[in-house]
Design a protein that fits this description.
single chain; mainly alpha; 3-stranded antiparallel β-sheet; two-stranded antiparallel ribbon; 17 helices; 5 strands; binds carboxymethyl coenzyme *A
Length: 427
């Protein structure tokens, strides 16, 4: 059987055969279907890219029906169990796991780029004390481009490498400085002796002690959360990164656009909504009443359901197990008990079962962040820190893809036809 699609335009009787490649057809093939008196060929209308592939990618694979997530072919569960965030970031960027010497060089480069220019501190100081940390992150990441003008040479591989090191390394520093600013506390400089997550915890929480020593369980939990959030194929912020990157600005500017996209509550903010929802429920005995309200359409069970996963989100499985470990160190949480009860009831209820609604990545992550003492405002920032490695991998893949051009969608125009300007006095 030929791998083609045959389309007949009933307006004109024209028939075309379109090759099917990798389970997709090229939208431009439809251009030749043109009705008389129309100014352009047939277009595909797909708001929100519900069924349009915008790129070919070799980075992340998701099978939503079977609950599978692979980074460069490796299952997320195996990476969460055996890898570190820095190693996973290398994998995303380079396509292969590093050898021992490659890992050593990668870790050394990232560790040595964690400091930020002193001027950045000065403009963080200029933000109001209650400025949202994502607002500070968008601005400071974008501002980094002014410190590294050579980063505009995006087709110079050495420049791309150093920008990648700098961005992965400096995100935790910018995030921690934003947090310290909100509390009026002095900034903590990076500690290069610590691991990537350990250093971040030190920059967040070190007070007057000479050396901050993170609890190993907490450091590990944060590292796993970073692995789980590192990439998720063509989501909203990755699409922003690729789209802005397609006009060829430096990567700091494109990353600022991706952080901005992540800021929205439909993307990076659902874990915050889960924590607030649990707060409203208040106690385990009120869970059944809340579930009845959800089923009656009064509100949604936040942290449940996903556009792609119609099965248990594989990231949520790992996070749920980790929540027990973290809470074992930080002390039990009444909120987590309510969440567990919600999940138990929902997974047995026909309403949720028939709609294939399962916990997603956001259902349990907020409780871990809370247990670590991280305020709700910082949750999307915690998402942005590791996601930068996914954004940069996708950005570089896009730049090197000969089929990519500046992103420029078409539109279906429904406005006024041509008409003549009417002077103000005659309207
Ligand atoms: N609680 C109750 N009912 C729900 C929920 C929910 N969380 N999610 C979906 N439904 C129902 C929905 O009412 C609809 O029912 P019906 O067929 O009777 O009208 C059915 O399930 C299908 O829902 P949908 O809105 O068509 O599904 P979608 O794929 O457009 O929405 C979603 C996906 C994630 C926006 C949605 O499930 C939701 O709002 N979940 C809560 C918010 C949340 O947790 N978001 C985090 C997503 S994971 C983070 C990320 O990867 O960016």
């Amino acid at each position: 059987m030929p791998d083609t699609l045959t389309i007949t335009d009933n307006r004109t009787g024209t028939t075309i055969d379109i090759p099917i490649e990798n389970g997709a057809i090229r939208a431009t093939a439809f251009e030749e279907l043109r009705a008389p008196d129309t100014e352009h060929g047939l277009m595909l209308y797909d708001p929100a890219f519900m069924n349009t592939a915008s790129c070919k990618s070799r980075i992340t694979f998701i099978d939503g029906d079977r609950g599978i997530l692979l980074y460069r072919g490796y299952p997320i569960e195996q990476l969460a169990e055996h890898s570190t965030y820095l190693e996973t970031a290398y994998l995303l960027v380079h396509g292969e796991l590093p050898t021992a010497s490659q890992a050593e060089e990668w870790n050394r480069e990232i560790t040595h780029h964690t400091l930020i220019h002193e001027n950045v501190k000065q403009f963080i100081d200029g933000f109001h004390h209650d400025a949202h940390p994502m607002g500070i992150l968008v601005s400071t990441v974008g501002a980094l481009s002014t410190f590294y003008p050579d980063a505009t040479q995006i087709y110079d591989e050495a420049q791309r490498r150093i920008s990648i090191y700098r961005l992965i390394a400096k995100m935790p520093t910018l995030a921690a400085f934003a947090y310290r600013h909100s509390l009026g506390l002095p900034y903590n400089y990076p500690d290069n002796d610590l691991s990537f997550p350990g250093n971040f915890l030190s920059m967040l929480f070190k007070m007057v002690e000479l050396k901050y020593e993170p609890a190993p369980e907490i450091e590990h939990a944060l590292d796993v959360l970073f692995i789980l959030h590192a990439d998720h194929e063509q989501n909203c912020s990755t699409n922003a990164m690729r789209s802005v990157g397609s006009s060829h600005p430096d990567p700091y500017t494109a990353t600022a656009a991706a952080v901005a996209a992540l800021y929205g509550p439909l993307h990076g903010g659902a874990n915050e909504a889960v924590v607030r929802m649990i707060g409203r429920i208040g106690s385990i005995d009120r869970v059944p009443e809340f579930i009845e309200g959800v089923k009656a359409g009064k509100e949604r069970l936040m942290g449940f359901g996903h556009r792609v996963y119609k099965n248990y989100d594989p990231r949520a499985k790992v996070i749920k197990q980790m929540a027990d470990q973290v809470l074992g160190v930080t002390g039990t949480s009444a909120e987590l008990d309510i969440a567990r009860e919600l999940e138990k009831i929902a997974l047995e209820d026909e309403y949720f079962v028939s709609r294939k609604l399962y916990p997603n990545v956001d259902f349990y992550s907020g409780f871990i962040y809370r247990a670590l003492g991280i305020p709700v405002d910082m949750f999307p920032v915690l998402f942005a820190i590791p996601r930068v490695s996914g954004w940069l991998s996708q950005w570089e893949e896009s730049l090197l893809d000969k089929e990519q051009k500046i992103a420029r969608p078409r539109q279906v125009y429904l406005g006024s036809a041509r008409r003549d300007y009417v002077p103000l006095g005659s309207r």
